[in-house]
Amino acid sequence: MRMRMEKADSSRRSSRNQPNALPMLSILAKDIGELATKEKEVFSPILKKWHPLAAGVAVATLHTCFGSELKQFVLGITELTPDAVKVLRAAEKLEKDLVQIAVEDAVDSDDGGKAVIREMPPFEAEAVIANLVKVWIKMRLDRVKEWIDRNLQQEVWNPRLNEERCAPSAVEVLRIIDETLDAFFQLPIPTHPALLPDLMTGLDRCLLHYISKMKSGCGSRSTFTPAMPALTRCTTGSKLQGVWKKKEKLQVTQRRKSQVGTLNGDTSLSMPQICVRMNTLQHIRAQLEVLEKRTVTCLRNAESASANDIANGVGKKFELSPGACLEGFQQLCEAVAYKVIFHDLSHVLLDGLYVGEPSSARIEPVLKELEQELEIISETVDSKLRNRVITDIMKASFDGFLLVLLAGGPSRSFTRQDSQIIEDDFKSLKDLYWSNGDGLPNDLIDKCSKTVREILPLFRTDTESLIDRFRRTTLETYGPLAKARFPLPPTSGQWNPTEPNTLVRVLCNRNDEEATKYLKKTYNLPKKL
Questions:
Q1: SS3 (DSSP) at 175
Q2: 161 and 294 together in one domain
Q3: Tell me: the pLDDT tens digits for 94-108?
Q4: Residue 159: which H helix or E strand, with range?
Q5: Does 52 fall in a domain?
Q6: How far is Cα 465 from Cα 476, in angstroms, rounded to an integer?
Q7: 185 and 302 in contact (C-beta within 8 Å)?
Q8: pTM for this one?
Q9: Residue at a domain's end among 123, 140, 162
Q10: Same domain, 168 and 238
Q11: What is the pLDDT of residues 477-498, one digit of tens each?
C-alpha cells in the first residue's frame, strides 16, 4: 500500500506542469480512493484469511500516508484560494470513503473496528476550510471599515448629488456589502449556512460604525434647548417704563444670544446637511430589506443548505442596523427641529417675540422665517419622512412659544388684555402647519398643541385667581411644609396649568402691581437678572 501510494504520488507530481491541471493533492486523493476501492474488491477478500481486518489495515495505511502530505499542505496555506478548497474537499471525501471501508470491513470484529479507526486521526478538512473562510471574512470586513472611514472624511452631505438626496458614501457602503455577500456565496465551500452568521454579524457592525459616525456631531434636542433664565418679577408703574423697556430689550437680546450660543452640538452643520443624513438612514433601512431577501435567495441556491437553514431567520438578517437607523433618524429629526427653532430662528423667536410691548413684537417675523425653513426642508427631505420632520418642528415651535411665555426673562411682561394677542398669534402659528388643508392633519396639530391650549387661559385669568390657584397647588404638592413658607417650586420644564412652577411663571410675567407685590413679599424675586 505504501509503495502504491508513492507511485501515485510520483504520478501526481509529474502532472504539475500540465495546463488546467487539478491541484496535485486533489489528484493524489482521487488516485488513493481508487486504490482503496481496488484493494477492498480484489485483495482484501483473499488477505482476510490471514488477517481479520485486512481492508481496514490497508485504508488506515493510506489514510496515514495522505494525512502526512495534507498536513504539510495545510501548513503552507495563508489564504482561501480555489485550489486550497479543492484539495481540502477532496481530502474530506477521501476520508469519508476510507472510514466507510474500514467500518464495513470490521462489522464482524469484536470491537467493531474501533482499533483501526483510532489509527486514522481526522484530517479536519472542514475545520480548516471554516478557519480559512473566517480569515477571508475578517479581511473583507477590515477592508469595509477602512473604506467607510476614508469616505466619510470626504463626504460633503450635499442633497443635490443624487436623485435620492442621500449620501453617496452610503450608496457605496451598500454596494460593497452587496459585493461581499455575492463573493461569499461564490466561495467553493460546503458550509455557507454555518458561516453566514459570522459574515452578517460583521457587516452589521460595519453599518453600525457608519451610522454612528454619520450622526455624530449633529446634536440632539437637549443640545439646542437654551438654558432658562432665573425668575424675576415685572417692573410696573414707572414713568420711565418705555425707556427702561428699550434698554432692557437690548440687554436681554444680548444675554439671550449668549445663552443660545453655548450649545453642545456642531452648529456649523447646515439644516440641509442634517436632512441628507436623515434621507441616508431611510435609504439604508430600505436597502437592508433588499439585501436580506437576496441573501435568502443565495442561501437557497447554496450547496448543502437545508430547508431549516432557509426557514430559520437567525444569521440571515441585519439584527442591529435597522434599529440604529430608526433611532438615529429620531435623534436627527429632533435635532433639526430644535436647531431650526432655538438656533436658526432664535433672533426672531427668543430675542424678538413679545420683547418689550407685546403688541409691537408679534409673531409675524417668526412665521415668515419659519415658512422659509419649512420650504427648504420640504425640498430636501425624502417625501416619506417629510411629515415626520415637520411634525417635530411643529412640536419644537410650540415648545419655543411656551418658553417665550413662561421663561422669556424680564424682557417679557403681559397684561390680561395681551392674552388675546397671544391666542391670535398661536392660532397663526398653527395655521402655518395646517396650510389651508395642504399641510399636517388638523387632529395632529390639535394633539401636539394640547399643552399650549391648556396654558393660554392662564394669561387671561385675573391675578387674584392665579395667586389662589398657585397657593392651592403648592399646598397639594408640598403638604404641611408649604403652610409655614411657600417654597419656590423647581423648574420641571413639563409645563402644566395645574403645576406650581408654571403658575408662578405666569405671575412673574404678569404686568400688574398685585402680582409683583406678591412675588416680592413671598419670594423676594428681583426685577431684573
A1: helix
A2: yes
A3: 999 988 888 887 777
A4: none
A5: yes
A6: 17
A7: yes
A8: 0.79
A9: 123
A10: no
A11: 777 665 556 678 888 778 999 9
